[in-house]
Structure to design on (246 residues):
């Protein structure tokens, strides 16, 4: 059995740990800065080994995944390097490059429920790509893309999930203003979003073709759509996606 180590068990590391163990009963070694974080996993997952010592944790590893904040990547690599040997080193840290990292991956927090959209950067290190793919495929959809597309992937999926949630919240605020309870408005917004996604996935339609089916000439939907345009909705979405690119 492969030894997989995840360094960092916060928002992203935690989502990967939970997603992986939801789908498989594979073994995982996880580390964090504090015992308090590791304790939240102990007892819940029988195949987990926890360790506060990164250098010790990576001994004999086949793949090590770095899920610490970008500014900790350099010191953590320095710490584990003596014991890393030929383990594949994967990083999910946004916008950080390091010569020892074999694979750059960009998942999102829906990994926790097996619904991540993960980007893996192409590299000639096929052995490490295969190992990374096998892992990230347990967490949702995976696309292997050239370096030039990693930024777009990061913004659309890694960050984009937050923008989608902001849209849901905006819908809720509109719903509450029109007289709904917040929880009720959230249910409606989520089911409407789910319906839109499933419909496009099922029909293969372009969004605009589906929109045409909703818009009666002179009706209420087109009034709202035009209001979105007047307020610069498309432009705001595009600008939000481009804002984090270097
Ligand atoms: N959040 C996202 O949606 C997302 C999406 C894609 C990529 N990423 C990337 O994922 C990385 C982590 O982000 P995050 O949001 O998960 O951060 P986070 O919630 O702050 O989690 C960071 C984790 O790293 C641990 N840690 C800190 N120093 C450590 C060390 N020296 N050794 C071992 N573990 C250490 C922390 O331990 P304690 O809990 O004990 O403090 C914590 O569990 C970032 O590089 C980010 O760019 C995040």
């Amino acid at each position: 059995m492969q030894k997989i180590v995840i360094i960092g068990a916060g928002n992203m590391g935690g989502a990967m740990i939970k997603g992986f163990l939801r789908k498989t009963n594979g073994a995982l070694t996880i580390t964090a800065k504090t015992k308090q974080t590791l304790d939240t996993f102990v007892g819940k997952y029988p195949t987990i080994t926890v360790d506060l010592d990164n250098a010790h944790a990576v001994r004999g590893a086949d793949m090590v995944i770095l899920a610490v904040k970008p500014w900790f990547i350099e010191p953590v690599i320095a710490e584990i390097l003596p014991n890393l040997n030929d383990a594949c080193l994967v990083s999910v840290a946004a916008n950080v490059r390091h010569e020892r990292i074999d694979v750059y991956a960009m998942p999102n927090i829906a990994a926790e429920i097996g619904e991540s959209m993960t980007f893996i950067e192409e590299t000639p290190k096929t052995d490490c790509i295969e190992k990374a793919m096998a892992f990230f495929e347990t967490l949702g959809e995976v696309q292997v893309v050239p370096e030039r597309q990693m930024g777009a992937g990061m913004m659309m999926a890694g960050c984009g999930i937050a923008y989608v949630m902001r849209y849901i919240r905006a819908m809720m605020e509109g719903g509450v203003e029109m007289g709904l309870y917040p929880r009720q408005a959230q249910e409606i917004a989520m089911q409407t979003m789910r319906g839109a996604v499933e419909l496009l996935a099922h029909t293969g339609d372009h969004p605009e073709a589906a929109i045409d089916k909703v818009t009666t000439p002179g009706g209420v939907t087109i009034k709202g759509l035009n209001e979105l345009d007047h307020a610069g909705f498309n432009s705001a979405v595009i600008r939000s996606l481009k804002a984090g690119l270097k």
About this structure: The chain has two domains: 4-145, 154-243. The radius of gyration is 21 Å. Residues 114 and 139 are 4 Å apart (CA to CA).
